[in-house]
């Protein structure tokens, strides 16, 4: 579970964006300030719940006394029409926070649901499904948490917690070896180093260098299988590129340790949710 101190600033900024300069002029004009109502967050389609805490934070920021009954928590599956949570509180707060809550929760539940689908496709193999840094600016911590709720695993959170030497780094450095040597001379002993390669020749060069993980980029299953044999357990292997529901099983069966998929956080469809008063 994410710490409230991580979630609240994101939700507060989203509410402020929606409330603008004058607040909810529609709701405040129609609904008496003392009106109380009950509403339920419901799923319109099958999916994996994620972002419930963010959604509830939106309501609590506007009505700290709102009463909540959770039927399905983050990480639970929900069928079409299923109730996720029921809220009772100030009607104005429920109506004003509705869109912010559903925007966040629909987005995050969509990511968790897409991750769940990929994870199910690779069952029985050694491969883990991992996310990337292709996240929505400002929402990375929530989106990466949603991947975990879907059964996936997190890649690095940012540029500061692990080294990933990519093709452009190699091009500017003048090769794989000088790139690795320079980074090893600069970083601490606790930092992992991953290097992206596009060819088996690059991989062969890399195997003699002090790295921890190799990113096998845009390789077909045959080349991935050959790469895994070349590595022979000396490094962790990560496959990326052209990862879809249709291709992920074949990629996993090559024996790679991880499969990274950017579309989980940049293109996963929202889960259709509603707030029924």
TrEMBL record:
<feature type="domain" description="Quinolinate phosphoribosyl transferase C-terminal">
    <location>
        <begin position="111"/>
        <end position="276"/>
    </location>
</feature>
<keyword id="KW-0662">Pyridine nucleotide biosynthesis</keyword>
<dbReference type="InterPro" id="IPR002638">
    <property type="entry name" value="Quinolinate_PRibosylTrfase_C"/>
</dbReference>
<dbReference type="Pfam" id="PF01729">
    <property type="entry name" value="QRPTase_C"/>
</dbReference>
<dbReference type="InterPro" id="IPR022412">
    <property type="entry name" value="Quinolinate_PRibosylTrfase_N"/>
</dbReference>
<dbReference type="GO" id="GO:0034213">
    <property type="term" value="P:quinolinate catabolic process"/>
</dbReference>
<dbReference type="InterPro" id="IPR037128">
    <property type="entry name" value="Quinolinate_PRibosylTase_N_sf"/>
</dbReference>
<comment type="similarity">
    <text>Belongs to the NadC/ModD family.</text>
</comment>
<dbReference type="GO" id="GO:0005737">
    <property type="term" value="C:cytoplasm"/>
</dbReference>
<dbReference type="InterPro" id="IPR027277">
    <property type="entry name" value="NadC/ModD"/>
</dbReference>
<comment type="pathway">
    <text>Cofactor biosynthesis; NAD(+) biosynthesis; nicotinate D-ribonucleotide from quinolinate: step 1/1.</text>
</comment>
<keyword id="KW-0614">Plasmid</keyword>
<dbReference type="InterPro" id="IPR013785">
    <property type="entry name" value="Aldolase_TIM"/>
</dbReference>
<dbReference type="GO" id="GO:0009435">
    <property type="term" value="P:NAD+ biosynthetic process"/>
</dbReference>
<comment type="subunit">
    <text>Hexamer formed by 3 homodimers.</text>
</comment>
<feature type="domain" description="Quinolinate phosphoribosyl transferase N-terminal">
    <location>
        <begin position="24"/>
        <end position="109"/>
    </location>
</feature>
<dbReference type="InterPro" id="IPR036068">
    <property type="entry name" value="Nicotinate_pribotase-like_C"/>
</dbReference>
<dbReference type="Pfam" id="PF02749">
    <property type="entry name" value="QRPTase_N"/>
</dbReference>
<dbReference type="InterPro" id="IPR004393">
    <property type="entry name" value="NadC"/>
</dbReference>
<keyword id="KW-0328">Glycosyltransferase</keyword>
<dbReference type="GO" id="GO:0004514">
    <property type="term" value="F:nicotinate-nucleotide diphosphorylase (carboxylating) activity"/>
</dbReference>
<keyword id="KW-0808">Transferase</keyword>
<comment type="function">
    <text>Involved in the catabolism of quinolinic acid (QA).</text>
</comment>
<protein>
    <recommendedName>
        <fullName>Probable nicotinate-nucleotide pyrophosphorylase [carboxylating]</fullName>
        <ecNumber>2.4.2.19</ecNumber>
    </recommendedName>
</protein>
């Amino acid at each position: 579970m994410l710490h409230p101190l991580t979630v609240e600033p994101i939700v507060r900024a989203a509410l402020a964006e929606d409330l603008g300069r004058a607040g909810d002029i529609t709701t405040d004009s129609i609904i008496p300030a003392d009106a109380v109502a009950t509403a339920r967050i419901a799923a319109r389609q099958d999916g994996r719940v994620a972002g419930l805490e963010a959604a509830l934070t939106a309501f609590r920021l506007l009505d700290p006394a709102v009463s909540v009954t959770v039927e399905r928590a983050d990480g639970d599956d929900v069928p079409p029409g299923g109730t996720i949570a029921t809220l009772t509180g100030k009607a104005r707060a429920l109506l004003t926070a509705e869109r912010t809550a559903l925007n966040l929760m629909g987005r995050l539940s969509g990511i968790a649901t897409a991750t769940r689908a990929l994870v199910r496709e690779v069952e029985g193999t050694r491969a883990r499904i991992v996310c990337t840094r292709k996240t929505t600016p400002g929402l990375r911590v929530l989106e990466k948490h949603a991947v975990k709720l879907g059964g996936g695993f997190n890649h690095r959170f940012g540029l500061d917690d692990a080294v990933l030497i990519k093709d452009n780094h190699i091009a500017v450095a003048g090769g794989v070896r000088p790139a690795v040597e320079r980074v090893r001379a600069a970083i601490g002993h606790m930092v992992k180093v991953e290097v992206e390669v596009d060819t088996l020749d690059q991989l062969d060069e890399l195997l003699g260098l002090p790295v921890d993980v190799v990113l096998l980029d845009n390789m077909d299953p045959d080349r991935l299988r050959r790469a895994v044999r070349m590595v022979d357990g000396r490094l962790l292997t990560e496959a990326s590129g052209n990862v879809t529901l249709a291709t992920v099983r074949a990629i996993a069966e090559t024996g790679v340790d991880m499969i990274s998929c950017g579309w989980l956080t940049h293109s996963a469809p929202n889960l259709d949710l509603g707030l029924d008063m």
